[in-house]
Design a protein that fits this description.
It contains ten helices and nine strands. It has 257 residues and is an alpha+beta fold. It folds into two domains: 17-83, Orthogonal Bundle (Arc Repressor Mutant, subunit A), CATH 1.10.10; 90-256, GAF domain (Beta-Lactamase), CATH 3.30.450.40. The strands form two sheets. The protein has a six-stranded antiparallel beta sheet, with helices on both faces. A hairpin with a 2-residue loop joins strand 4 (111-118) and strand 5. Helix 1 (17-27) crosses helix 3 and helix 6 (150-157) crosses helix 9. It is globular. InterPro entries: GAF-like_dom_sf, HTH_MetabolicPath_Reg, Tscrpt_reg_IclR_C, Tscrpt_reg_IclR_N, WH-like_DNA-bd_sf, WH_DNA-bd_sf. Residues 74-257 form the IclR-ED domain. This is IclR family transcriptional regulator. Pfam families: HTH_IclR, IclR_C.
Length: 257
Amino acid sequence: MTQDDTRPDTPRVQGASSSRKLLHMLLCFTEERPTWTVAELAGELHLSVTSAYRYLGLLREVGLIDGAGGKSYRVTDLAVGLARAAEAAQGPLAEVSVPVMERLRTEFDETVLVARRGGGAVYCVDRVESRRPVRLQFDRGQAMDLHAGSLSRVLLSSMPAAERRRYVERVVGQLSPDRAALLTPTALNEVAERGWTESFEEVDEGIWGCAAAIRVGETVIAAIGTAAPVYRTGETRRAEIIRLVRDAADEIAAALG
């Protein structure tokens, strides 16, 4: 993370440099990295130590950050309210999806995920783990690019045409020809029409994935998908998993609708 990180399809607010740095400092605190020193924050965000102290002081003033012992700092319990607000805004999606996800995991014993789009990113709503170890980069609450992986491309394909085009134009120059070919209007229209897609090693090396749109009325509100090592997903098994995932998406959509 750097102080200049922004999502590709999110307009950059002018004259908000200090506010942006402050928010990026808060976002440094994650489940994987719950404590930071001032020097570490300064290095991570390319700030002077003096500036890092100033921003940290503001976060402490409003009660979001406090000391964690020694020279380290942590997020306070006040942030729990933000997490609960995010959960409440999701409505019944997670509540309806989790039992279906758990059944899917039982049927083919691979990790199952539900994600939704927020602006120019995709966020994991919930995740049910396989009983067999598999390393993925898509954790609960984590923001992921809209153009990499089956879950993301299902949601990208469902965006309004103009918004989708602007996003693709921003990122396509950074991609290999093979990856760029997945983002052409024809390719994305095909995904939108059939409501599902699959991916091979687009996000994590050695991982195959598939996903299907969860559609309420004419609107795609989320996507459900799975990810598994390529070596244990032959063609016949992939076809069966895709069928089950598509059925699960329809089941969730019916419950929500």
